[in-house]
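Homework help board

Subject: predicted structure for assignment chain

Our instructor gave us this sequence and asked us to write out the predicted structure in token form, then describe one feature. I got the tokens but I'm not sure how to describe them. Can anyone check?
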Amino acid sequence: MTTEQLKIFTFNCWGLKYIAKHRTERVNAIASFLAASDYDIVTLQELWVFADYERVRAAVSKCLPYSKFFYSGAFGAGLVIFSRFPILAATVHPYSLNGSPIDVIAGDWFVGKAAASILITHPVLGQVQVFDTHLYAKGGDEGLEHQKAHRLVNAWEFAKLARQAAEIGRYVIAAGDFNSVPTAPPMNIIREHACLSDAWEDSHPNLRPPSTASIPSPVDAIHVYGVTADSPMNTYSAGKPLEPYARKFQGKRLDYVFYRGPSNQFINNNKSTTPILRCVDTKVLLTELVPGFNFSYSDHFGLEATFEIISPDAASTIEPQSPSFISTPNPNSTTTTPTPTLTKRSLSPELITSILQSLTSRYRFAQSQSHLHLVIFTVCIFLLLAIVIGSAWLPRAWINPIFMLITIFLAWLATTMLYIGFVYGKWEINSLTNIIEELEIYRSSLEESRRSVGRSSQ
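My token output:
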């Protein structure tokens, strides 16, 4: 059996300028770690400062000579991909919904969260599309229903991109910070609709989710359950307020490496016609402190995934591991043991209903917020008119500067509320409408397919 290996590493660097603590020291340490590694592909998130990217690029130029820094939003996407193989093409897809411009503290809208990708030619696999992403952060998996909607939209759009890449005959590797735990709806969308395999789950086949009856230790949470964020072992997470899930299970698994083969990989009697990509090992790395300092490499840990590439001759003798397909009994078989047939997976009706509930809740919330912002805009206009008229009867000269400051503030507030309430509000409502209708059509087509299968089996 002829095999080769492919090693992937993904890491959220927490590289916010002026805000992220010890950024320069940590980026230098990350660059040194990558320079000493043997990775074939590295995807980084939150590396917003271009000078930091140049520093890392210079350090890894010998082992990872090809790279792409992606731009999106006002401050860039923070996404970077390094590759051992030449990059043939690069694209970035900003997510249609990504927070609100009025939510300055969260900042997702300003950085333009996106799905970035490069296309490479691997000497064995052929064309491989590598995705790097960082999904919408606010709200978490335990927040209000309307706060989950934007990340669900991100996951749906990301899944469509990955699926399209596979349908045109490419291998797909998708890595990054998905800001959701494995059981959350966004991850189900990505696994099911894009038919992607989770590298951690594939390399830990007997792993059961942690339960309240057996809470893991912080070390086990990392090395057994793949926790990469909100760990008490991380100096930036220790002591900060955490969601109940993170407190209960010693952190969260938010960083992933997904993969799959081309859609037409298994077309010859359920045997592969192209090499099989199979995950054989995953590790959580950079859990220690930065050498010489008393802080972690980032507020996340890194994730390494090692794949073996099985040649077509050897691959033709094994069954597919990828969840792109499900083995089901073949009703036309006359043998005692049914021959498996390959069926594309799809979202469950329950998951689609749950997604639509969140999107509908967000739609109503967006309508109410748009109305509120336009009301504030109208009030500001009336107040400005009152100030303009009343300025003719100012009793004291010293009051004039105060009136001027109030006028400037009201003018700024009115302009902001008009943009948020009308321009952005309509954009969000229209985007939600499009996606809700798309999912409704998708659900209807699935129901029709199931009815057709039911009629044909009768």
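Reply (TA_rk): Your tokens look well-formed. For the description, you could write something like this. The first strand starts at residue 3 and ends at 12. That's the kind of observation they're looking for.
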